[in-house]
Write a structure and sequence with these properties.
Three copies of one chain form a homotrimer. By secondary structure, chain A is mostly helical. Helix content of chain A is 70%, strand content 1%.
Chain lengths: 421, 421, 421
């Protein structure tokens, strides 16, 4: 190497080094989004286990079948329509945009607008998210909804309803312009699933025998190990759900999100534990399990913008809300076998409000009115859409199984297969 | 810092920066191979759950025991013999090479030939792969094969048979030179397991009562939740199986592989769902579960070289093949309790052929004749080896348990332990 | 760009490139610690499944409830007190240090002392570790300890006992200055849990009917699939437990640790398999499962400093120790339903001694006397603390359930909920 080489030549070497560093940064960021995708994927197993554990033995095959079909329908629907409806790259600040059927990957699979990961990573991460919102509905309507009715609803929900309200915020639509804040989807994913579930519950009515002579009859789940397995797998997946929503491997943010997510989960368990003990003098496993989930749903809107202490408070309150909410829905005779509305709808709303209370955000973002408008607009759209969808399906093919089928169980009636033998 | 420093000094700073970037790149690539290893590892749990779920209650401990021993025998056999037989670094383009017992790590654990990850990462990733092929056999021969006979077979299969055919392609042997293409092992791993299973099935005969008076008697598995858990865990692990087979964290390729793998899985579910409904008017959970696995096996050969739409087609056809193949094997009175031959052999062959149909490859690679030669040569070698191995073990110690033991169940007969109480 | 730019300007470009490379290195290292955290987290599910599988059907809800509460109590206790007691950044070489309640993150979440990852990553990784040691105790005292007594013990154990002895080595206390070596915690985590378990066992006494008329009555677990699931999940998590303990994504070290960890696990299975067969002529699934765990515990102290062949020897001996140790504890009438003392205490001690036998360390580190002093000091402190804690709780509220409650099962007695129905 000569002393006489020009500055230009040396500068080229320095620039090559910088480019190499930036390429690795892209690689690491992209890798994290992919790993987060794997974690969100396993939430589908978590939901399947949780819901299967919380239903009666005679309806286990049915709920497993639904969960297997949800992810299948979900990914295909989101591929065909949903992704381009949620992220059209059009109509910024608006109500609706659609950039066409199927996927439209940019040249080389990445563009300036996907600075930190590839187009394919973006799609598959978002698709795994989308499919979870349908899973929330399946638990609430378990043990008496017709399989085909539910599958039809799933197609409509993932292709149309979820992406439209998702666009409002994450696709840079009008709620984003307004200042609504929802980090990883307390509202956009969880309460959306909860509103869909509520619409189904109302049209479907309670299970036979649940509310008789003015009394609430507990119908405990058939397998507590399965339900526990489900909750731990959901928490496991939530590291990807919240951690991946940073949309890069940014060390400070992803680490903080891991801590706030975990602390809200354990505080949720603690809140439900204490509330159940105080209210009912019981050590209620199903409440504590739902308390963890409530804490996780509660922190989802604000995991990146609150202190660790705040995350404990948010989770603890979510945990207390669980037994109160379960009683509340029972009073309304809204029969939700797995407590999905308490976990995802009630704690989803709470978490979205918590942004305004605990969030460290600049003025004009995540303020109480913004959050209330977000909750109300997404909630009313989703509830109306879901109610209409279930109503039309009811008119078309019916949504509830025959009382005899409910009695004998859906496994025998719809699948001719016992879950255990 | 002086203005008078020479260009040489400045260039050294630039080169240091480039070296730092390259070191991080190596670190990130290596990290992905290790994480993929963890994912492939959990496939062993997936297989254990799937097979345990699909057998009768009286044979659950036995199948769990086999699965625990397979990974143990597999890793040790591959360490002792298999790795140096599959990747001898010798006899390029040939049929056979062996670079000695045990491992021979290069100085510092990495060499030029392992540009993107360490020697140890390479070994452990490959070893987890190797052990899976034996697991495929265990499901097919479940409920009537002697434990010791199966364990002996496992040693021979993982130390000798799998590495030799693996060398032909992945160790740079003659099939690689020919142009045979098999990205992550539709043939090299899955159909190899399937051929071993087929040899075992033929020599072993069907379970008592499976085929009587010309009728096929369904013997449903004892736990659908366990089987479902297994399938989701296998899919979870497949992100590492296919994603890790990129052999780097290359953003474009790994992302694409994640998408094609997932879409083939859901299309497989859809294919089996529709085929079962059309053929049998049933919503058959076990078919849909095997449809997912069929789709995953089908995409394994081509996950990095097909479009997303093609991956949907490949998976969908694999899904349709599942119920057809199950009927076909039953007609031949080849009794496979978990459907391993349908999933891994039939869909493995289909996936390998799909490379020629859908793959975007340069001329001379992955053409139909290449693929057929690969399927036929690896298939015939593996089948012959396995048949001979099972035959010799049969002569030596017998391969089938006594009819009384089969009747009472292997858990009591061989382990004196009930799976549940 | 002009040929006349100064060297200073070009050097700035080179330095910018180096800084970029270093930032990505930090990002990748931090990402690995976070992923390892996720893996260690899932060990809590592994323990829950293992323990639930190994207890009787009537005590399943109780053990699940405990495991859910342990991680909740564990993370909160470690947040409030434990972390600043274990890593006070004070009193180097000493016996005790405490830097105050709660967390005290440095500005920006990272400092020089956390060169490879953020403060938050450090906390959450360590907190997941801390909670596991309590889980070990829960298995040993299962089926007869009062829920509230156990929860109280957990708070004390994770806030005080575990962090103090942890400080001695990992917090740069006196054992670290002495030369004691314990890579990922054969002693600091596993035998600590084992000593706590032993103290509980002694004060609690055996389950009714376990030792009668001088005979040992086997009380097999209620679900072998659940126990098997637990063991695979624990192994899965151990990739993070040991791999994350490298405290960076260093390619050579993390890869080696993955290999030694896996090989010790499979050798442990093999050791227990052979020992059980030779001693009892049985193919004992529960022994083989505990053999895997024994191998994993055994390699934990030395996974980064032994050859692969040594890891096989360490694991194999650990596996042989399992059936011997189970018999030994039974002779002492120390009734441990899940074998936690054999796995974590006995193999934890063995693994710590193995450092001195097989470890490639510089003189003055990890020598036999260092290791013995570490084992003895940490063991005696932990045992004394735990004994005193359980003793005080016994005086205060009692530690054992009423014989009638033990008879009917804790699920009904303490939770009024059946695990299955």
């Amino acid at each position: 190497m000569s002393d006489f080489m020009t500055s230009v030549e040396v500068l080229a070497a320095a620039e090559e080094a910088l480019k190499a560093a930036e390429e690795v940064k892209f690689m690491t960021n992209n890798l994290w989004i992919l790993i987060a995708t794997v974690l969100v994927f396993i939430m589908h197993l978590g939901f399947a286990c949780l819901e299967a554990g919380f239903v009666q033995k005679k309806n286990v095959v049915n709920i497993l079948f639904k969960n297997v079909m949800i992810i299948s329908i979900g990914l295909i629907s989101y591929y065909a329509i949903g992704f381009n409806l949620m992220y059209p790259g059009l109509n910024e600040g608006g109500f609706f945009g659609f950039s066409g059927l199927g996927l439209t990957p940019p040249e080389g699979g990445m563009t300036a607008s996907y600075a930190d990961y590839t187009y394919w990573s973006d799609f598959i991460f978002q698709a795994m998210f989308a499919a979870t919102c349908c899973t929330i509905v399946s638990g609430a309507v378990a043990e008496r909804m017709k399989l085909m009715a539910f599958l039809l609803f799933s197609i409509l929900f993932v292709s149309i309803s979820y992406p439209i309200t998702g666009f409002w915020k994450w696709g840079a639509g009008w709620l984003d312009a307004l200042g609504f804040y929802d980090f990883a989807g307390s509202t956009i994913v969880h309460s959306v699933g909860g509103w869909g579930a509520l619409a189904g519950l109302i049209l479907l009515g309670p299970r036979k025998g649940k509310y008789e002579n003015g009394k609430v009859k507990a119908i405990p789940g058939h397998s507590m190990p399965l339900a526990t397995l489900g909750v731990f797998l959901l928490w496991f997946g939530w590291f990807g759900f919240n951690g991946g929503s940073v949309l890069s491997a940014d060390p400070a943010l992803v680490s903080l999100v891991f801590v706030t997510t975990s602390m809200a989960a354990v505080a949720g368990a603690m809140g439900s534990f204490l509330a159940s003990y105080v209210l009912y003098k019981s050590f209620d496993l199903s409440m504590v399990l739902n308390g963890i989930l409530g804490g996780l749903v509660g922190i989802t809107a604000s995991a990146d913008i609150v202190s660790v202490f705040s995350s404990l408070v948010i989770g603890f309150i979510a945990g207390i809300l669980i037994p109160l909410s379960v009683s509340f829905f029972d009073k309304l005779k809204l029969d939700d076998p797995v407590g999905a509305t308490s976990v995802h709808l009630v704690c989803g709303i709470w978490g979205t409000l918590a942004v305004a209370i605990f969030g460290n955000l600049e003025p004009g973002v995540g303020e109480l009115t913004d959050q209330l408008i977000g909750i109300a607009s997404i909630g009313s759209f989703t509830f109306a859409f879901s109610f209409l969808a279930f109503f039309l399906i009811k008119k078309l093919i019916g949504i509830r199984v025959h009382p005899d089928e409910e009695q004998v169980g859906l496994d025998l009636a719809e699948h001719n297969l016992a879950a255990y033998r």
